[in-house]
Design a protein that fits this description.
Keywords: Hydrolase
Strand order of the largest sheet: 1-3-4-5-2
Number of strands: 7
Protein name: Acyl-CoA thioester hydrolase
Strand content: 35-45%
CATH superfamily: Hotdog Thioesterase
Helix content: 10-25%
Organism: Nocardioides zeae
CATH topology: Thiol Ester Dehydrase, Chain A
Distance between the termini: 17 Å
Order of helices and strands: EHHEEEEEEH
Number of helices: 3
EC number: 3.1.2.-
Oligomer: single chain
CATH architecture: Roll
Shape: elongated
Number of domains: 1
Enzyme class: hydrolase
CATH class: Alpha Beta
């Protein structure tokens, strides 16, 4: 990721529940469920900032997650996504997935990680290589709270 600006103020959060479809036969969540919860929190963040065109233009190019503890069927989950760095054409987001109090156990971090998205200029796409990375639109940077550009 190229040099950029720290942006610790852009945060999105969602509340959900571990559903049966999210679990294995023991009622413990699948690791892949974290991606869905994180994308939902990211979508909430972008909606709150008025960035409706964000997802088609900002694919993930790197994703890392540490799975710290199990989550169980029926348990409430809070997922938080924070934009921590914005470069010329890339953005780093960090996330935490919290399991809420469940069966007498206090709330805890079940997973945390980070990912990078890249802004694509789909107008310059060719059929052989796809879209090219492009600078973030100025109005998007403003909506995300990025200053000093």
């Amino acid at each position: 990721m190229e040099p950029g600006h720290e942006v610790p103020v852009a945060v999105g959060s969602t509340r959900s529940r571990v559903e049966w479809i999210d679990t294995d036969a023991a009622g413990i969540y699948h690791n892949s469920t974290v991606v869905r919860w994180v994308e939902a929190a990211e979508a909430e963040l972008m909606r709150a900032r008025g960035l409706s065109g964000y997802f088609p233009a900002a694919p993930r190019v790197r994703y890392e997650v540490d799975f710290l503890a199990p989550l169980f069927f029926g348990q409430e989950v809070v997922t938080t996504v924070t934009v921590v760095r914005v470069g010329r054409s890339s953005m780093r987001l960090e996330f935490e997935v919290w399991g809420e109090e469940h069966d007498g156990r206090p709330a805890y971090v079940a997973a945390r990680g980070a990912y990078v998205t890249v802004h694509l200029d789909r107008s310059s796409a060719d059929h052989g290589t796809g879209a090219a990375a492009a600078p973030w639109p100025a109005d998007w940077l403003e909506r995300l709270g990025v200053t000093g550009r």
